[in-house]
């Protein structure tokens, strides 16, 4: 029998507010354990929460970007459970009335097929503390307790592990581009739980779902779903009953493992949070937030393809870093050479930033300076190789291309008479390439061009050198 995979994702995203959800403690990552805490996030007796307005704003902003309806009347609820990482023994979250609902993300697989993945809801909640398990016992760091989260819950529309990573990557890029979260998976700012089940192909009835908790990389996500699909198929075909449970992905053993029985909603005994008032959202506030949303990454991809004639791949590489996309656009517009702009930004400039651990915001030169360099090359005044030397000096000193060219006498020699004299001298000193060429070794001509460029220290116009060497070789 053929089986169909059914996946729904629950993605927890830490919001980039300066303070926590219900108090004024810092949300900064790191710090000494238990140094970003107060009576409210430690749930000391008598401490009362007050909701952070920025959290509501960021949640609405996320909902708009993800094509959701914004529910104008909302509230917070208590989700009751006892666990050491939850100091109140309940979590303040949203259950019956989430702030955002009925959205979608459109994904595209490797074959270019597009599909809409529905978003059931986006709700606000507070993060829990972090448990550190040691041989001596379990330690708790409450710095993360009370950090604001949104939970983006997809509909069970995902059918392959590839679709799940496409969805998660696109979600990450959208939320990061609108400035609500840094989405750093390595810091826990974006964490993903997957609900996975199987059913006979063609069936409309859902199977028993298994939850896989806190998958922290795209690679691990695909591997976990692939493993779990095969495990459930084997179990069903051997007559074993699939039970609703929570499992975790063991990276070292490449398998999912049981953590605990899966709770039902009724187990949490949800009820309205009595210490916080209802949330009423006005149309004016929604419109104001809507105006703060920049062009979304995948809209930018389509526009770059149309306006700058870049490939889809190049455009998608650029939008992984919106600063790079903006730097590219400014350079492409002014230089009217989008391909050169892309090649410099994603080539030598990216290489230098990686080598020196420098971000794009810390570059010592501007798009206008890169435009100047591109124009020097396009006009034939300097070569690409000289351009690389110039960009390296610009990176270190911040000097303008024209200053470096003048200081180091980089201007390219485009005099045919002078270049021809150099070619004849090099041919006289190195007769073998011409002899090889006459004997049918056509690559010898490239060797001679290299010798001439070396003789001129890269300052001869490459096109003129190429034309003159070809002429000299073919007339002798």
Automatic annotation (TrEMBL):
InterPro entries: Asn/Gln-tRNA_amidoTrfase_suB/E, Asn/Gln-tRNA_Trfase_suB/E_cat, Asn/Gln_amidotransferase, Asn/Gln_tRNA_amidoTrase-B-like, GatB, GatB_C_1, GatB_Yqey_C_2, Gln-tRNA_amidoTrfase_suB_CS. GO terms for biological process: glutaminyl-tRNAGln biosynthesis via transamidation; translation. Its EC number is 6.3.5.-. It catalyses: L-glutamyl-tRNA(Gln) + L-glutamine + ATP + H2O = L-glutaminyl-tRNA(Gln) + L-glutamate + ADP + phosphate + H(+); L-aspartyl-tRNA(Asn) + L-glutamine + ATP + H2O = L-asparaginyl-tRNA(Asn) + L-glutamate + ADP + phosphate + 2 H(+). Residues 326-473 form the Asn/Gln amidotransferase domain. GO terms for molecular function: asparaginyl-tRNA synthase (glutamine-hydrolyzing) activity; ATP binding; glutaminyl-tRNA synthase (glutamine-hydrolyzing) activity; transferase activity. Keywords: ATP-binding, Ligase, Nucleotide-binding, Protein biosynthesis, Transferase. Belongs to the GatB/GatE family. GatB subfamily. HAMAP family: GatB (MF_00121). Allows the formation of correctly charged Asn-tRNA(Asn) or Gln-tRNA(Gln) through the transamidation of misacylated Asp-tRNA(Asn) or Glu-tRNA(Gln) in organisms which lack either or both of asparaginyl-tRNA or glutaminyl-tRNA synthetases. The reaction takes place in the presence of glutamine and ATP through an activated phospho-Asp-tRNA(Asn) or phospho-Glu-tRNA(Gln). Heterotrimer of A, B and C subunits. This is Aspartyl/glutamyl-tRNA(Asn/Gln) amidotransferase subunit B. It comes from Clostridium ragsdalei P11. The lineage of its organism: Bacteria, Bacillati, Bacillota, Clostridia, Eubacteriales. The gene is gatB.
């Amino acid at each position: 029998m053929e089986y169909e995979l059914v996946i729904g994702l629950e993605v927890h995203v830490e919001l980039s507010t300066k303070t926590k959800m219900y108090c004024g403690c810092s949300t900064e990552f790191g710090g000494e354990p238990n140094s970003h805490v107060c009576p409210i996030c430690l749930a000391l007796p008598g401490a009362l929460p007050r909701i952070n307005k920025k959290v509501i704003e960021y949640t609405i902003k996320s909902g708009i970007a993800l094509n959701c309806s914004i529910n104008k009347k909302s509230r917070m609820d208590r989700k009751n459970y006892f666990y050491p990482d939850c100091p109140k023994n309940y979590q303040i979250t949203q259950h019956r009335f989430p702030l955002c609902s009925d959205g979608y993300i459109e994904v595209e697989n490797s074959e270019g097929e597009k599909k809409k993945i529905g978003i059931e809801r986006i709700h606000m909640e507070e993060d829990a503390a972090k448990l550190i398990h040691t041989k001596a016992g379990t330690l708790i760091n409450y710095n993360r307790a009370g950090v604001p989260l949104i939970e983006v819950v997809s509909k069970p529309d995902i059918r392959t592990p590839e679709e799940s990573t496409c969805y998660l990557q696109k979600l990450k890029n959208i939320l990061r581009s609108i400035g609500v979260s840094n989405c750093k998976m390595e810091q826990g700012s974006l964490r993903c739980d997957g609900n996975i089940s199987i059913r006979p192909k063609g069936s409309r009835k859902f199977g028993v779902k298994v939850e896989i908790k806190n998958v922290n990389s795209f690679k691990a996500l695909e591997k976990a779903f692939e493993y779990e699909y095969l495990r459930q198929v084997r179990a069903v075909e051997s007559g074993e009953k699939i039970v609703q449970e929570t499992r975790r992905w063991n990276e070292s053993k490449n398998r999912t493992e049981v953590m605990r029985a899966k709770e039902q909603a009724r187990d949490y005994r949800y009820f309205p949070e009595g210490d916080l008032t209802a949330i009423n959202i006005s149309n004016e506030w929604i419109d104001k937030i809507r105006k703060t949303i920049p062009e979304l990454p995948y809209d930018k991809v389509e526009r770059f393809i149309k306006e700058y004639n870049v490939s889809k791949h190049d455009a998608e590489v650029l939008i992984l870093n919106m600063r790079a996309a903006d730097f590219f656009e400014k350079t492409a517009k002014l230089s009217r050479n989008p391909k050169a702009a892309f090649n410099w930004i994603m080539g030598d400039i990216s290489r230098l930033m990686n080598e020196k651990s420098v971000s794009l915001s810390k570059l010592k030169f501007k798009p206008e300076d890169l435009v100047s360099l591109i124009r020097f090359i396009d006009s034939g005044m300097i070569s690409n190789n000289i351009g690389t030397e110039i960009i390296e000096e610009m990176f270190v000193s911040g000097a303008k291309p024209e200053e470096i060219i003048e200081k180091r006498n980089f201007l390219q020699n485009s005099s045919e008479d002078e270049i021809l004299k150099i070619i004849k001298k090099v041919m006289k000193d190195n007769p073998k390439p011409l002899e090889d060429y006459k004997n049918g070794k056509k690559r010898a001509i490239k060797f001679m061009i290299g010798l001439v460029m070396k003789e001129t220290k890269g300052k001869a116009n490459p096109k003129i050198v190429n034309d003159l060497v070809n002429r000299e070789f073919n007339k002798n």
